[in-house]
Amino acid sequence: MKHIMIMRTRILHPGFEQCHGRDIFRIYFLFMLLWIMALFPQGLQAADEISAGEVLTLERCIDIAKKNYPGLLSAAGSVEASRSRVQQAEAGYYPQVNLSSGYSRIGPADSNKTTSSNTSPYDEYQSSVNLSQTIYDFGRTPGNVEVSSLSAEASQADMDSETINVVFAVKQAFFGLLQARQDRDALLESVAQYELHLRQAKGFYETGIKPKIDVTKAEVDLSQAKLALLKAQNAVRIARITLNNAMGIPDAPEYGIQDTPGLQDYATGLDEALKRGYDSRPDLRAARARREAAQRSVDLAEKGYYPVLSGNAGYGWTGEEFPLDRQWSVGATVDVPLFSGFSTRSQISEARGNLAVTMGNEELVRQSVRYDIEQAFSNLTEVSERIALAELSVRQARENRDLAQGRYAAGIGNPIEVTDALVSETVAKIAYSNALYDYRIAVASLEKAMGVTP
User: Fold this and answer.
1) pLDDT digits (tens, 9 = 90+) for 98-130
2) Residue 31 sits in the same domain as residue 81
3) Ramachandran category for residue 32: left, alpha or beta (phi over 0 → left; psi -120 to 50 → alpha)
4) Do 243 and 380 have their domain in common?
5) Are 38 and 81 part of one and the same domain?
6) Are residues 289 and 428 in the same domain?
7) Cys-Cys crosslink for 397: which of 14, 82, 297, 425, Cβ 3.0 to 4.6 Å?
8) Per the structure, how many domains does the chain have?
9) What is 289-343 written as a DSSP string?
């Protein structure tokens, strides 16, 4: 392929044969790079890269976090290591083959003594192929494989648990950013209302209808509203930083986010949520797998009292000169542990202690599952009821503000009424916005508590 490409280039460019070898390599490399980019337009751009100005959905943010968050990368490495330990344990099922070869130069330690007929140094060569196979070890190898498999299962469950935590953190940060933007927009509208009120107060003062204090109060109210707006704008920036961190890309470029569809009732009863949590929570599955592994470890430690039967075979060459003498061997070995300095008994005691630890941990996690689900379910119920009241409060606050502004515009109201009405409306809007996003976060919390896999 390479030579064909160069020949084609020489035909298209008659002066190409004057190029140096380094130039040829550069042109060839550039051609191959362009060819790869044409075949795989997304191959050179990471799938998790955010383009400047891109509008992200919640699903896109979650996908980015799954590919970038360091905790998930670490968990994936732990899973890979645990699976490798399973393969290491399975190696006991297979024969072990070793090839060895050596050379020695041998001579007498004291050349003055001639008791031996041969006092000159000589060469010795040796080479052999040896095979050994465990025939029966009273279940040690299957026990090791089972313990390693359960540990791998626990590592996978840990990774699932970490994934759920990361997804929940992204949802919290995503909804938090949306909520911060809504609060900022509410305060922007509040500033506009205070500016309108200030213009009215100045107009009344200039015509002699209202005193100077109305203008001063309107200016103070506007300044306080602008201060609140500054805090809200900073909250938006902090919320964006939080989302970047949750996705694992703290240096992300500027991007937008797209709000999710409207609220939907989450029809899940408490009993159903508890059942699902006991069945699906990854941390509970991990605790259960570690408890089972600890139980198998006790059985495995007790097998240290039993013998091991193994077979071996070998074929080798040895001698002082070539051709070397050949020899072979076949045999079987029984290793019987008569006394190990109480090591086996101590290992059994340790395994039983570890079993007690894992049993306690499993029960703690089970209680934590119930606590998390009940708390999340209670929060979801409270937020659901709060939304309707907050929506009603917004309508009432808007009507009150219209009345207060109308009275003041007609010259029969006072600035305190307008200020109170504007403050009440802003507070009501922020409370309603918070309730909407608290509901979504409550749903995400319940799904996390149940162990819903994203």
Assistant:
1) 999 999 988 877 656 555 555 688 888 999 999
2) no
3) alpha
4) yes
5) no
6) yes
7) 425
8) 2
9) HHHHHHHHHHHHHHGGGS-EEEEEEEEEEEESSSSPEEEEEEEEEEE-----TTH
**What CATH number does the domain containing 428 carry?**
1.20.1600.10
Same domain? 39 vs 62:
no
Amino acid at 144: N
State the pLDDT at residue 33: 55
Q: How far is CA 423 from CA 194, 366, 415, in A?
A: 10, 46, 12
**CB proximity list for 391: less than 8 A, separation 6 or greater:** 432
Six token digits for residue 418: 């307008």
Low-confidence ranges of the chain (pLDDT < 70): 1-48, 110-119, 261-264
323 upstream amide cis, omega within 30 of 0: yes
Pair 89, 29 in one domain: no
Residue 187 domain boundaries: 58-95+156-305+342-450
How confident is the model over 215-232, as pLDDT tens digits? 999 999 999 999 999 999
Q: Does residue 116 form part of some domain? A: no
Please name every residue paired with 317 in a beta bridge, in sequence order, or none if there are none: 127, 326
Q: Two tokens at 332?
A: 């079987």
Q: Please, what's the b/e burial string for 194-229 (b: 16 or more CB within 10 A of its CB; e: otherwise)?
A: bebbbebbbebbeeeebeeebbebbeebbeebeebb
